[in-house]
């Protein structure tokens, strides 16, 4: 009990008029002040409806964060990768389309080292022991059997069955397809690389490679529904029926003759 309250009690006890008892003006005023304490600014009691609204908002906020936080992963709501998106599937930047022998070789060398070298050897020498024919000096790569249409198909679909390279027939091993692994420009790159490496010098004009992404694309289009998943490899016999004159749609310049 505070001292002010104590004094109040005493005052109420002494009830003489004019002595500040409950009947006096001061006494009544004291009672009013005591019962209805003047609220201090900023400390007024909160009306029930405000508390209810705040509580509801808090619950809604918690529910919203809980259901939409996406585990707070930044990649979920980061929409910067959608810049430029109009409608439909996410816009992909177009593939590069290298058009000089050097640019294609640069793309192709990296692919050759990681994919082809394990079978055909780092110098394109092949491996007779495992029935893998050479690429260096091969007539199919840079010689008189070479064409964009044939090379594109070997790379796109893989190759199987007997094939004669540099006077020796290789048979039994399968060349794996690259068509679902590499893009057209990468296939053109690796073809241009093997055509112009080691002793192979097929593209005489560095500005006019015989095989660019266009030829590979044309070969794909010509083969239509043929699967590039390795289940439908080409054979040498089939390739020999293809004209050497690049009559595929879209196929442009004939390969430089050696
Ligand atoms: C798993 C081993 C293997 C890999 C990897 C491989 N090849 Fe072959 N490649 C072969 C075999 C085996 C043949 C012969 C297929 C046949 O007997 O019909 C062949 C044939 C070829 C031929 C035609 C024949 C010749 O020697 O001229 C070319 C061109 C060729 N491969 C290029 C490539 C290129 C480029 C790559 C890399 C993208 C590659 N190969 C990856 C095994 C492989």
SSE order and pairing:
Layout: H1 3-13, H2 25-35, H3 48-68, H4 74-77, H5 101-120, H6 148-157, E1 159-160, E2 163-165, E3 168-170, H7 184-195, H8 213-223, E4 234-235, H9 236-240
Parallel strand pairs: 1-4
Antiparallel strand pairs: 2-3
Helix pairs in contact: 5-7, 6-8, 7-8
The structure holds heme C.
Q: Would you kindly provide a brief summary of this structure?
A:
Helices cover 41% and strands 4% of the residues.
Query: What's the mean pLDDT score?
Result: 85
CATH superfamily of the largest domain: Cytochrome c-like domain
User: Fraction of residues in helices?
Assistant: 40-55%
Major sheet: 2 strands, parallel
Strand order of the largest sheet: 1-4
Number of helices: 9
CATH class of the largest domain: Mainly Alpha
What is the count of β-strands? 4
Span between N and C termini? 115 Å
What form results from the Cα inertia axes? rod-shaped
The count of domains is: 2
- CATH-defined topology of the largest domain: Cytochrome Bc1 Complex, Chain D, domain 2
Write out the distinct hetero groups bound to the structure.
heme C
Structural class: mainly alpha
Instruction: Tell me what the CATH architecture of the largest domain is.
Output: Orthogonal Bundle
Residue runs with pLDDT of under 50 for 5 or more positions: 10-19, 249-253
Q: What series of H and E elements makes up the topology? A: HHHHHHEEEHHEH
Radius of gyration over all CA atoms, rounded: 43 Å
Which percent range describes the beta-strand content?
under 5%
């Amino acid at each position: 009990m505070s001292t002010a309250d104590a004094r109040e009690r005493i005052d109420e006890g002494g009830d003489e008029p004019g002595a500040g008892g409950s009947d006096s003006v001061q006494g009544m005023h004291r009672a009013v002040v005591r019962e209805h304490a003047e609220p201090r600014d900023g400390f007024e009691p909160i009306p029930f409806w405000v508390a209810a609204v705040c509580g509801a908002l808090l619950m809604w906020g918690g529910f919203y964060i809980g259901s939409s936080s996406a585990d707070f992963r930044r990649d979920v709501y980061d929409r910067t990768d959608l810049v430029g998106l109009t409608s439909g599937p996410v816009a992909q930047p177009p593939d590069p389309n290298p058009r000089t022998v050097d640019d294609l070789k640069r793309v192709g060398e990296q692919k050759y080292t990681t994919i082809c070298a394990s079978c055909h050897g780092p110098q394109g020498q092949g491996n007779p022991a495992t029935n893998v024919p050479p690429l260096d000096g091969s007539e199919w790569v840079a010689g008189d059997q070479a064409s964009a249409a044939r090379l594109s198909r070997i790379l796109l679909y893989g190759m199987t069955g007997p094939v004669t390279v540099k006077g020796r027939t290789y048979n039994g091993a399968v060349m794996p397809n690259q068509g679902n692994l590499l893009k057209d420009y990468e296939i053109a790159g690796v073809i241009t690389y093997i055509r112009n490496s080691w002793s192979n010098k097929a593209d005489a004009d560095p500005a006019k490679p015989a095989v660019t992404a266009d030829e590979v694309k044309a070969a794909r289009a010509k083969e239509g529904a043929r699967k590039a998943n390795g289940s439908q490899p080409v054979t040498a016999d089939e390739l020999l029926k293809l004209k050497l004159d690049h009559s595929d749609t879209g196929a442009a310049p004939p390969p430089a003759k050696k």
